[in-house]
């Protein structure tokens, strides 16, 4: 891992298309601006990890077929359609 010290307004270049700028420092928080092409997906790491964990949990959760088990029974209701041909 490369560790650098930067001041407000200073930038880092990652390849030819990505620039990271330190926008401000307030207490223990650093505001970072990222300039990258639209096709580069940028995620907050903690949210990405949480999403991965949720997806893994969903994959290991058994699927219940409520219709097959008789848990939900609902008759289809006809949907009223407006008469677009009647010009009254």
Kindly report how far apart the N and C termini lie.
75 Å
Catalogue the unreliable spans.
none
What is the typical, i.e. mean, pLDDT? 83
The major pleated sheet works out as: 3 strands, antiparallel
Element-by-element helix/strand order:
EEEH
Please state the overall shape, judged from the principal axes of the Cα atoms: elongated
Please estimate the helix content: 10-25%
Give me the oligomer status.
single chain
Query: Beta-sheet strand percentage?
Result: 15-25%
Number of helices: 1
Features:
88 residues; alpha+beta; three-stranded antiparallel β-sheet; 1 helix; elongated
List the helices and strands and how they pair.
Layout: E1 11-14, E2 18-26, E3 29-35, H1 45-60
Antiparallel strand pairs: 1-2, 2-3
Detailed description of the structure:
With 88 residues, the chain is an alpha+beta fold. It has one helix at residues 45-60; strands at 11-14, 18-26, 29-35. A three-stranded antiparallel sheet has the order 1-2-3, with no helix packed on it. A hairpin with a 3-residue loop joins strand 1 (11-14) and strand 2 (18-26).
Quick overview of this protein structure:
The chain is of the alpha+beta class and 88 residues long. Helices cover 18% and strands 23% of the residues. The protein has a three-stranded antiparallel beta sheet with strand order 1-2-3, with no helix packed on it.
